[in-house]
Structure formats: structure tokens, C-alpha cells
Design goal:
Layout: E1 26-31, E2 34-38, E3 43-51, H1 57-70, E4 75-80, E5 86-93, H2 97-106, E6 115-117, E7 123-126, H3 136-149, E8 155-163, H4 165-168, H5 172-191, E9 196-201, E10 212-218, H6 221-231, H7 235-240, E11 241-244, E12 248-256
Antiparallel strand pairs: 1-2, 3-5, 3-6, 3-7, 4-5, 4-12, 8-10, 8-11, 8-12, 9-10
Helix pairs in contact: 5-6
Length: about 260
């Protein structure tokens, strides 16, 4: 961050440069001839816990779901496939303060104190636009939660990733070509109801400086593994993704739409 120059007169003959205008709004495709602009987004957080001591994982999983439901929290509770004593908790809100003011106390009460956080698996991200969304508000605010809550899709794979700085140096046309290749594969899996994605940006929100959080959900686990394998062949993953994971794999134990 730059130092403040308040109170400092500009040197003689040297005018201060004009500060750039910062625009944090999201933009979608024009709709009815008008631009879509929205300064709202959905934050989603995945917390992964291990049931400590003699705590019953099945009961603690149910208790976590009850606690979140009672507080009106939109949530999905997962049973951790790779840890017989592990559970994952996915929550979401437009206001990130919700995670501190509502989710945090809900998960810190009573028997849930037996849950030990596995910080390596914590993921936090925000929905974002690409500029091509036909219904920007739906994409930004409703689609991520609807995807996570879909009762037909009980398996999930969540992971963070970071692209190398080399990708940012490419011109827009080349970036677009690389992203279209990646997106085409994702749409093909979605069209066959094999895998559906939740894409979140996490710049500055991730402890390991990751840039994106990806959630893959579907009816069966194998296609979720298969799409990750297929994406390895794309130019984006093969040349420009410098870090992926850790991967959390879970099966839905309960869903709560919140209020």
C-alpha cells in the first residue's frame, strides 16, 4: 500500500498524478440492451473439523446441522470421505460478518466444542462475474447456494488453486482462449449431469495466497474425479496453475437453506 501524502505539498513543477478510479462492481452481459451492474456478491466458507476424543462423529454431525438450522444459517454438512471422524461445514452469506456473528457461535456451543478445526482445509471465497452472465444477479447471489443445496447432488469435492503470474501477463485475447477451453469442458460435464461447479475468488482471503476456490458437486463421485483429470490436459492447468489443493471430499449429511 502506498504511503499517504496528506499535508505534503507537491514539489515545484511536479503535479501529483491523478488517482485511478476504483470500480468494485460486478458486470454481466448486456440485458435488453442495458448493462448489468451489481455491487453484491455471495461469500461461501468451508470449515473442516475432526471429532476429538470419544465424541460420536455421527451425533456431532447431526448436532452441527441442528445448530446451524436453528440459527437460520444456509449450510451443507458433509461427512468426510477421507477421515472417519471428520465433517465439513459449508455456509454462505452476502455479508461476511455473518460467519463471525452467527456461524461462529453456532459451532462453538455445547457438544460442538468437541470439534477440532482442521485449518489446512479452510476455504473462503466470493462469487464473481466474468462479464458474460445472462442473469448477473442469479449467478452472483443464488446459483452457488442452489448448486450446493440440490438434493440430487450428494457428493462434493472442494479445493483451492492458484495460477502463476505468467497468466496475468498474457493479453486478453489469449487469456480468453485459454479460459474458453477450460469452460467448454465444464459445460459438457454439466450438460450430462455429471459434475456441476461453484467458482469463487479468494484473492487476499486465503492463508496460502490461493486465488480461487472450486466446488464440484454431483450425483456420483467418479465424474467429479474424472473432470479434475480432464482439466489437467487444458492449457490453463498444464501451464498456468501453480498450486492445487488440499482436496476435501465429502458426502452430504444434511442441507439447510437458511432464512
Amino acid at each position: 500500500m502506498s504511503e499517504s501524502t496528506t499535508g505534503r505539498p507537491a514539489a515545484a513543477g511536479h503535479a501529483e498524478p491523478e488517482l485511478p478510479h476504483i470500480d468494485v462492481a460486478e458486470r454481466g452481459a448486456p440485458r435488453d440492451g442495458r448493462p448489468q451492474i451489481l455491487d453484491r456478491r455471495l461469500f461461501m466458507q468451508l470449515l473442516v473439523f475432526r471429532c476429538a476424543g470419544a465424541g460420536d462423529p455421527a451425533e456431532l454431525t447431526r448436532a452441527a446441522g441442528r445448530a446451524l438450522e436453528e440459527q437460520g444459517v444456509g449450510a451443507v454438512v458433509y461427512e468426510d470421505l477421507n477421515d472417519p471422524r471428520g465433517i465439513g461445514v459449508l455456509t454462505w452469506a452476502e455479508d461476511p460478518a455473518f460467519f463471525v456473528q452467527t456461524v461462529r457461535p453456532a459451532l462453538n456451543r455445547g457438544e460442538l466444542r468437541a470439534l477440532e478445526l482442521q485449518p489446512d482445509f479452510t476455504m473462503l471465497g466470493r462469487s464473481y462475474s466474468t462479464g458474460y452472465e445472462p442473469d448477473l444477479e442469479y449467478w452472483m447471489l443464488r446459483r452457488p447456494a442452489e448448486t450446493a443445496l440440490n438434493p440430487a447432488w450428494s457428493w462434493a469435492v472442494w479445493y483451492p488453486l492458484r495460477r502463476s503470474g505468467a497468466f496475468s501477463k498474457l493479453d486478453g485475447r489469449e487469456q480468453g482462449s485459454i479460459l474458453r477451453e477450460h469452460g467448454l469442458i465444464g459445460r459438457a460435464y454439466g450438460a450430462q449431469d455429471l459434475a456441476h461447479d461453484i467458482r469463487l475468488a479468494c484473492h487476499g482471503l486465503d492463508a496460502r495466497d490461493n486465488e480461487f476456490v472450486i466446488g464440484l458437486v454431483g450425483k456420483e463421485l467418479h465424474p467429479l474425479s474424472h473432470i479434475v483429470q480432464s482439466m489437467r490436459k487444458t492449457r490453463q492447468t498444464a501451464e498456468f496453475v501453480s498450486q492445487m489443493g488440499p482436496f476435501f471430499v465429502g458426502r452430504v449429511a444434511s442441507r439447510h437453506p437458511g432464512r
